[in-house]
Amino acid sequence: MKTSYLLRTVTLWLAWMLPCLAVQAADTIPAGRTRVLVVTGGHGFEREPFLQMFKDNPDITFTVVEHPQAHAMFKAEAAQAYDVVVLYDMWQQIDAAAKADFTNLVAAGKGVVALHHCLGSYQDWPEYTKIIGGLYYLQARTVGGAEKPASVFKEDLDLKVKVADPAHPVTAGVAAEFAIHDETYGQFDLLPDSHPLLTTDAPTSDKVIGWCRTYGKARVVYLQGGHDHFAYANPEYRKLLANAIRWTVERK
Known about the structure:
This protein is an alpha/beta fold and 252 residues long. It is built from six helices and 13 strands.
């Protein structure tokens, strides 16, 4: 009789306490961090200040891969190890298999954050332009019967950046207008179905310098800034990068 009573008491206590214990356990388990693959190669950059942006982001873990090894990470099996690709490369050589791997990866929903000089990658691969939404021309060429002049750049400039869409998650918390010391690009292509996020009136720059788009099931963001340590240390640029990583991980 006493044993039965004790058993019922313990059972009732557990029924009352277990939900509380479960909530406490869930509260103490940190949410999983976004796994980022950072792709570099083909263009010089200040490595340590650049990587410090990723080290200082508590919401991510990251792996850096440099060309020519980067394309192996676009294969379906390797891509299971990360959630989003950050492109900070300017690479040209790519074979048919790597093209298919990258296209399939993004079309299936792997997010892409494209930064700065990666706008000049893969000059002879039109599908890459469709993925990131634009192209910096390394030299003058004829495209679809139209003459395209070489794009231009200007380093070591102080410029004002304006947020074109303050309601977008990528620009959340970013000042409506901010100053940055960076490099500008001009005379590059921007696909008309890209959604502008950032603009500038700097005379050496094209007007739209940040945009988002979709490709298949993936979200893609391009940020034209990010030349050196001045940009890497800029708090608004860091917010944009962190927001872009977070947003592109989500599916369309």
